[in-house]
UniProtKB/TrEMBL annotation:
The lineage of its organism: Eukaryota, Viridiplantae, Streptophyta, Embryophyta, Tracheophyta. It comes from Heracleum sosnowskyi. Residues 22-198 form the F-box associated beta-propeller type domain. This is F-box domain-containing protein. Residues 243-276 are annotated as: Disordered. InterPro entries: F-box-assoc_dom_typ1 (IPR006527), F-box-assoc_interact_dom (IPR017451), SCF_F-box_component (IPR050796). It comes from the Eukaryota.
Amino acid sequence: MKKSKRTTPAPPEFPSFFRMDERHLYGFGYDEVNEDYKVVMIAECYVQFGGLIVIVYSFKTNTWTRIHNVPKNIHFTGTRGVFSSGSLHWMAIENQSNSKDIIVGFDLKLQQFKEVPFPPIEVTHDSSKSRFLADVGEYLCILDHPNYRVNAWLMNYPGAESTWYKALSSQKEEILGTIRSNELIAFSGSGEELLLQVRNSYYTKLAWYNLDLGTVKNARIHGLPIHFCSFLYTESLLQLPEDEPLQQKPSDDKKKKNTNKRRRDDFLSEGSSLRL
């Protein structure tokens, strides 16, 4: 069963327009503790408002909440929040003069921002333009394209010795061919392979990358177009909250009809005796 829900309008303090040097970010995820779907909207408006404006929509209460404790002196490099482990994540740059790459997380349960440790990636000039944040199943992933290599870093499970581990590292031409971009889609059932979407100027294809052997084999699916996009879809038994029906006030005509009906019912209940 497919359902949709329209949110209430954003509060008036959230900007409705943006300057050329400002941006609007968003994210969607599920708060398991409170059993609530939530939407996070961020306005990066350092010129108009001197910082970030963050609001959170709760599907459970059908309300928006303003978050006042927000990060300062950061600039986001992506717009779509990546959901993983109960939090939304964005790539950002802390203090533009230093150009320090960071990952900003937002905990949906606590409704608080946090900084996620960054993997040991060499930072080069404009490296953020070749670095992307993604989710691979339940794992947070950083896909990095330094020079002619493809590196994929996956976040480890909580309590692991290291926060990140390098799941994929290969020469672009050597393993995947001359590519323009690629994405990690999902793990195989055994966890030994990663499904990749490889795109170049001529075609898009799906390929399985073996983590242990470092080999690649094409995933052949008949009927696919030359170019396409892949998204991971997970079915859920969780339902969106039901909209409460609007209770309309009865019109004057309806009030009169109800009054007459009550009088008639009272008359019939009391009974009447007719003398012939």
